[in-house]
Specification:
- By secondary structure, the protein is mostly beta strands.
- Among the domains are: 2-97, Phage tail protein beta-alpha-beta fold; 109-184, Sandwich (Immunoglobulin-like); 215-318, Beta Complex (Ferric Hydroxamate Uptake Protein, Chain A, domain 1), CATH 2.170.130.
- The strands form 15 sheets. The protein has a 22-stranded antiparallel beta barrel. It has a 5-stranded mixed β-sheet with strand order 15-20-21-18-19.
- A hairpin with a 2-residue loop joins strand 33 (579-602) and strand 34.
- It is elongated and about 130 Å long.
Length: 1061
């Protein structure tokens, strides 16, 4: 018996040794324990016996064993699951570890785990706000902006990672982990967009206020835009964006959010990572998100700075992982969208003679001169100069290059981007060179404490040809239309001396380009932004911010000495002295803020609150100093994802107002109802989202001149005392908004949003003229105006993906806004004879005469006496026919009235995108409804020798009145047009237009090809910006609103690439 027992023991040991000596190769990803056992059975022939309930409760298993002993594989797999095993013959029997062993194991060691949570997109992106909880306990943590988390747990504990919009995941703790990567799969059905709503992020379904996010992919990524303001055009409803000019460095767009709210500064507040900044200084490549806060509830957190709306910009930050390198760049050329051609010298001289005869003046051009010019045999004596072709480069180059590096680990992450843009100009010796560096860094100093430290440096060098009047008006473009084509640009040199043709007081554009010198502007800006964040307990954060910015703006005018003589007589015509002028202004800004925010979720209740304080100060280069001190609080509450409530209060104290009026209080409230979560819609497969919103609140405007409450001494001026008003106070904006959000079909394939709003500004600061009976002529500021903006906006988004891989999207937007002045004390007001602000009209309305076409021969008796009321006894057929509005038998100032509105009430856009396999095609249409653009100056009356006369355009030459062309667009030619100079609706053009804002064709390498080239991705594109415009306007780009001397908007054609390493 003893011998038999020894044999059995030896056989058992031999069997166990053989079992443990067997090797297995196993690679699984999120597999069940049953699947692992089946694979081990195939490789070893061993069977597994277990309790079904034990296996069901285990978490998914990921393994990667390569020819390891079976025992090693079993120990690694089952130890993590707290399972034990025994071997009997060809059978492996599973059981739970004894409780005493489990307890002893868990008590042995408390571990610290840290890592980063990613999504599963390509490339993976970190997830902020992921809940990390030790299962079965109250211990939890949240991931930060970089997806980083840190939590303490015991061996054997299970960590649960969860976030709305993603499937939860569990992970069993087995050892210390300092860089644990966790990936969460998107739950498309429950995925909710997270939106930056000011000082925090919020799920879109919990937002009751009115805001819009700019689609980065459509409006910025890979687009050859020179500044961020241009990207807003055709991207967001509720705003009006007009570029107006294409001059390098002067091509920033004007932005109004829901209309013009004041007669003072109506520009919106722009915050870049929490710091007020000119968005046109930002490299668009660095932009992560752009949110436009439109109603009072959304913007009230910014109080007195938010009356004109708020644009919140966040920039890209680094994520943990290997260093990623990305290059974005493009090359291209620019050509003007509107550049009316002028007549040649022969036609000019003929028209000039006709105009002088009509004015009773002697003609300047003989028939011999006209004929010799037409023959072209002696161009030195009888030149025929096309100044536009001679002086303008209609294919001005442009290039832009950005290089980004980002990466880091769980302790520190960084994103550094350098940008260089070189924008040429169609003008000689004119260009813009811009250098940007942005370095965003996030450092985790402790499990619950991190710091964002950002640095920005900007340098912008701008150069223009030195043709500026003593008042600072840039005149080079004007010269091209004023200097006649019968002036020779430059004579042959004699004795080393240059000789230029001269017209009136103007030498000529070529002379200014060659010897007139240049005007240089160098702008620099440095910004440091320090933002610590302390997570006191899960859900409670304390946030700080300190920002400091320095600006310098330097101007240099350089010209060499030049003496200009007449080519034939040698008479001195002009002496340009050596010029060396320099000026520089510096300014600084600082911001200090501290706030605490708290997030609470439990049993259907979701609460977010923030309480904070801030102060800021600006020091201008002209010794102007003004400051703002603020306290604010905001609360967002949601119950059962159905009922929403938002409330905000803010109090601002501004140095721009006097004692007793320094502080303003700005509250707002918003409510929302997610109807799709009600029982009667929850089962609907058609309606995925249906939300009703309403808000009301008050905002302030402190964007006014400082010291208006004080009387100031201005020695050396006509009025040596500027009178102040100690009672001057805040402009306040009260706004009501009612909105609806709708999402239809699976994954909200079709989304629709609309808003109605009523926005009223009270207490607008005006400068009414004091009566002369006071003994002096002066203006004293008062709160005396009220303006209303009332409107409607709507947007729709549709996305479709077919089974063959073809995808397309359609995103139109529409805005209607009516602006009206409700009251003005001491008005009307106007900054010139053509602009009038008065009750019942819109801000900036056009003022002048109503007209009824042109006077014809039938309007006069045979003796030349008029049959109808005319403004002057010099009126004749072909002159403008003014309407006697008050019917008093004469045309005079009493007949003037509001005649038009230069601001369109309707703005719209529509974005289309198509993609198939590796190709994508996208284009954007953008435009406005009717507006009134008034032609003035030489485009209206080109041969007016006593005013701003110049060279007729070809369009004008083909459309002016004469006895054979009585239905003409323009009046008769007259060198002294007199009454035709009056502002009137005769000169109106309809500013409505539809513009193809861009067309872009792109190709992206497949991931497989990119990997073979050692790249993370590569995309190339062809882009045409502003290539086509449909409009009834002639000679002028419709976005310039009638300003003939603005540099034309440029159409840009480029090729570019994006490369990721």
């Amino acid at each position: 018996m003893k011998f038999t027992g020894i044999l059995l023991l030896l056989a058992s040991m031999h069997l166990s040794a053989n079992t443990m000596a067997q090797h297995v190769t196993l690679s699984t990803k999120n597999s069940s324990l049953k699947e692992v056992f089946r694979e081990l059975n195939k490789q070893t022939g061993y069977y597994f016996i277990y309790n079904e309930n034990i296996v069901k409760s285990t978490t998914p298993i990921t393994t990667n064993f390569n020819h390891v002993p079976l025992k090693t594989a079993l120990d690694n797999i089952l130890d993590d699951l707290m399972l034990a095993y025994t071997i009997s013959g060809k059978t492996i029997i599973l059981e739970k570890k004894p409780q005493t062993e489990l307890k002893r194991t868990q008590e042995q060691e408390t571990l610290t785990l840290s890592g980063i949570v990613y999504d599963t997109q390509e490339p993976p992106a970190p997830l902020a706000g992921v809940s990390v909880m030790v299962k079965g306990t109250s211990q939890s943590a949240l991931t930060d902006e970089a997806g980083f988390f840190s939590i303490r747990a015991k061996k054997g504990d299970v960590l649960v990672f969860s976030m709305i919009g993603f499937f939860p995941r569990e992970y069993r703790v087995t050892k210390n982990e300092r860089s644990l990567p966790i990936s969460l799969n998107s739950d498309v059905a429950s995925l909710e967009e997270v939106v930056v709503v000011g000082m925090n992020e919020q799920q879109k379904k919990h937002i009751a206020s009115s805001l819009s996010t700019l689609p980065i992919e459509s409006n910025i990524a890979g687009k050859p835009i020179t500044n961020l303001s241009q990207a807003l055009q055709g991207g967001v409803t509720g705003i009006q964006v007009s570029q107006g000019s294409g001059l390098p460095g002067g091509d920033a767009a004007t932005v109004y959010i829901r209309g013009i709210t004041t007669l003072n500064d109506a520009n919106p507040l722009v915050l870049v990572d929490g710091v007020p900044m000119d968005m046109n200084h930002i490299d668009p490549v660095t932009v992560e998100s752009v949110t436009v806060l439109k109603d009072a509830a959304a913007a009230a957190i910014y109080g007195s700075r938010a009356a004109n709306g708020v644009i919140v910009v966040t920039t890209k930050r680094g994520t943990a992982g290997k260093v990623r390198v990305e290059y974005n760049g493009y090359f291209g050329y620019q050509t003007p969208t509107a550049l009316p051609q002028t007549v040649d010298a022969v036609r000019y001289m003929q028209m000039d003679n006709e105009a002088r005869i009509a004015a009773g003046q002697p003609i300047q051009h003989s028939e011999l001169k006209i004929e010799e010019t037409r023959n072209g045999t002696d161009p030195l004596t009888y030149p025929n100069t096309n100044w536009l072709d001679l002086m303008l480069d209609k294919t001005a180059p442009i290039s832009n290059h950005s290089l980004s590096l980002s990466g880091g680990n769980s302790l520190a992450r960084f994103a550094i981007t350098g940008n260089y843009m070189d924008q040429g100009s169609m003008l000689p010796h004119s260009d813009l060179k811009r250098f940007n560096i942005r370095a965003n860094t996030t450092v985790t100093l402790a499990d619950n404490f991190l710091v964002n430290l950002d640095f920005t440096a900007i340098k912008r060098n701008r150069q223009l040809v030195n043709r500026v009047t003593t008042s600072g008006t840039f005149r080079f473009l004007e010269d091209l239309y004023r200097v006649p084509p019968d002036i020779l640009p430059r004579f042959p040199d004699k004795n080393g001396q240059r000789f230029y043709g001269q017209y009136s007081d103007i030498v000529n554009p070529l002379a200014y380009a060659e010897v007139g010198g240049v005007r240089k502007n160098e702008y620099t800006e440095s910004l440091i932004n320090f933002r610590p964040k302390w997570t006191v307990i899960p859900g409670l954060n304390v946030n700080g911010q300190f920002s400091f910015r320095l600006n310098s703006d330097a101007h240099h005018n350089v010209r060499e000495n030049f003496t200009h003589f007449d080519y034939y007589t040698g008479v001195l015509l002009r002496n340009w002295n050596l010029q060396r002028e320099a000026s520089q202004s510096r300014s600084s800004y600082y911001f200090v803020g501290l706030n605490a925010d708290y997030t609470y979720r439990n049993n259907g209740h979701s609460l977010y609150g923030i309480l904070g304080y801030s102060q800021e100060q600006r020091n201008q280069g002209d010794w102007t100093i003004y400051a703002l001190r603020s306290a604010y609080a905001k609360m967002n509450y949601s119950y059962d994802d159905r009922f929403l409530l938002e409330g905000t209060v803010r109090m601002d104290g501004s140095s721009r107002f006097g004692p007793g009026n320094k502080y303003g209080f700005f509250p707002s409230v918003a409510v929302g109802w997610n109807l799709h979560n009600e029982s009667f819609l929850q089962e609907s497969s058609f309606v995925n989202n249906l939300k009703l919103r309403a808000s009301y609140g008050s905002l302030g405007n402190e964007n006014i001149e400082p010291y208006l409450y004080q009387s100031l001494i201005n020695p050396g001026t006509a009025l040596e005392v500027t009178h102040g008003n100690p009672d001057i106070s805040w402009e306040k904006v009260n706004m009501l908004d009612i909105g609806l959000d709708l999402g239809l079909f699976q994954s909200n394939k079709l989304e629709f949003t609309m808003d109605f709003y009523d926005k009223r500004t009270n207490g607008i600061i005006l400068l009414p003229q004091l009566p002369l009976t006071g003994g002096f002529q002066a203006q004293v500021p008062v709160n005396a105006g009220e303006v209303q903006n009332k409107g409607f906006e709507a947007s729709l988004t549709y996305n479709e993906r077919l089974e063959n891989g073809f995808g397309f999207s359609f995103r139109p937007g529409f805005t209607y806004n009516k602006n009206e002045i409700l009251s003005l004390e001491g008005g009307p007001y106007g900054n010139d004879a053509e602009i009038r602000n008065q009750v019942g009209s819109s801000i900036g309305s056009l003022f002048g005469y109503q007209t009824d076409g042109l006077l014809q021969a039938s309007d006069f008796y045979d003796n030349g006496e008029p049959r109808i009321s005319v403004r002057s006894n010099l009126s004749a057929p072909g002159d403008i026919k003014y309407i006697d509005l008050n019917q008093d038998g004469k045309i005079d100032e009493a007949d003037k009235t509001i005649i038009g509105d230069p601001m369109p009430r309707i703005n719209f856009f529509s974005n289309f995108r198509f993609d198939y396999k590796n190709f994508d095609l996208e284009f954007l249409l953008q435009g406005t409804g009717k507006s009134d653009a008034m032609l003035t100056g030489m485009f209206a009356l080109p041969l007016d020798m006593s005013a701003d006369g110049g060279i007729p355009t070809v369009y004008y030459a083909d459309n002016y009145w004469n006895p054979e062309r009585t239905d003409a667009r323009f009046p008769r030619l007259n060198a002294s047009p007199g009454d035709n100079r009056q502002a009137s609706d005769f000169w109106f053009q309809n500013g409505a237009y539809v513009r193809v804002k861009f067309i872009q064709l792109g190709y992206s390498l497949s991931p497989q090809v990119a990997n073979r080239l050692k790249l993370s991705g590569l995309r190339v594109f062809l882009n045409a910006q502003n290539p086509i415009t449909f409009t009834g306007m002639k000679m002028i780009d419709p976005e310039s609103r009638g300003d003939q001397w603005k540099h034309s908007i440029m159409a840009t054609y480029s090729i570019g690439t994006s490369i990721r390493f």
